[in-house]
Amino acid sequence: MKLLVTGSSGQIGRYVTRELIQASHSVIGVDIAPPSDQSAPYMRVDLTDAGDVYQSLVRSDAEAVVHLGAWSDAGLAPDHRVYGDNVRATYNVLQACADLGIRRVINASSAQVYGFAAAPPLYVPADEDHPARPANCYALAKLAGESAADYFVARYGMTILSFRFMGVRAPERIAAEIEQMASNPAAGGWLLWTRTDARDAAIACRQALEAANVPSGPYNITGPEIALPAAALDLVHTHFGDATEVRAPLPESSSPMSCLRAQQAFGYAPRYIWRLGQSHLEEGAA
After folding, report:
1. Rounded distance, CA 58 to CA 49, Å?
2. How far apart are CA 27 and CA 8, in angstroms?
3. Which of 228, 16, 23, 117 is nearest to 6 (CA)?
4. CA-CA distance, 213 to 198, in Å (whole number)?
5. 228 contacts 253 by C-beta, under 8 angstroms
6. At residue 65, what are phi and psi to the nearest 5 degrees?
7. What is the DSSP string of the chain?
8. Domain boundaries, the chain
9. What is the dihedral of CA 30, 159, 166, 66, to 10 degrees?
10. CB 214, CB 161: distance < 8 Å
11. CATH of domain 2-170+196-224+256-266
12. 198, 172 in Cβ contact below 8 A?
């Protein structure tokens, strides 16, 4: 399959590009920053420039797109830039795909749309029907991107999957973050005491591109288990209290975020399960 990956030099994008190439897909990466390696052809593209986006898609002859390019969080630029650039970039990509006949897009959203940094989940396991409560400009932009995706699905018959990534990190960062979380479990609640290996996020993108008849809409993508040596239900009760309803059984180490929809739709099953004292560093890493 001929694929274009936006944000190909980023924290998730470089792993997605590598995963797709290893699966024998033809990949072109686009980003405003060059990649750290030359595993795939690269174009410097400003996603807020519609002309850049159209030309990159025409040149790549892409059959599908993985759209990851964005300011990756609030605070990396002034709020109006984070919101405006991210919304404009997503619209440009989706409109260009619609006009050029590209009918499948993986759109990077974020679990920040749930607002867990500002308030506990209303219920667990938190699934994609949990109300959105964006607490910053980044989350607000991701929610706008999901709304745009719904529009293009309805108007153009596209298949657009909005991945609500949570706590995705490169492998070399995860162990230290888990150790910090273990020293202060209360601070880990906003990511529900989990971390997601970027390699699993990349596999999810590949699986969704390769699967047939995957429904459009939002999909939670996160680590399947909490990273601390504690019962998930105890953490929820201790740190969220009566603010969070427990609607279904929560096995001892199970993440309070449900990824059942992704599992059923395209077989999402993370391979790299990180816990305190259990690491999965890349081969050759220190």
Report:
1. 15
2. 10
3. 16
4. 25
5. no
6. -135, 140
7. -EEEEETTTSTTHHHHHHHHHHTT-EEEEEESS--SS-SS-EEE--TT-HHHHHHHHHHHT-SEEEE--S--STTSS-HHHHHHHHHHHHHHHHHHHHHHT--EEEEEEEGGGG-TTTS--SEESB-TTSPP---SHHHHHHHHHHHHHHHHHHHH--EEEEEEE-SEE-HHHHHHHHHHHHH-GGGGGGGTT--EEHHHHHHHHHHHHHSSSPPPEEEEE--SB-SSSS-HHHHHHHHHGGGSEE-S---TTB-SB--HHHHHHH----S---BTTB--PPTT--
8. 2-170+196-224+256-266
9. -10
10. yes
11. 3.40.50.720
12. no
The two tokens of residue 220 are 């939670």
Amino acid, res. 217 = G
- Tokens 């830039």 -> residue: 81
User: Which tokens sit at 276?
Assistant: 């305190």
Token pair 């427990």 is found at 246
Tokens linked to 243: 């603010």
Per residue of the chain (286 residues), give pLDDT as tens.
999 999 999 999 999 999 999 999 999 999 999 988 877 899 999 999 999 999 999 999 999 999 999 999 999 999 999 999 999 999 999 999 999 999 999 999 999 999 999 999 999 999 999 999 999 999 999 999 999 999 999 999 999 999 999 999 999 999 999 999 999 999 999 999 999 999 999 999 999 999 999 999 999 999 999 999 999 999 999 999 999 999 999 999 999 999 999 999 999 999 999 999 998 988 765 5
Kindly state the tokens that stand for 118.
């500002």
Distance set, CA 98 to CA 28, 48, 74, 101 (Å): 19, 17, 29, 5
> Which residue type, as a one-letter code, is found at position 17?
T
User: Six-digit token pair at 185?
Assistant: 């479990």
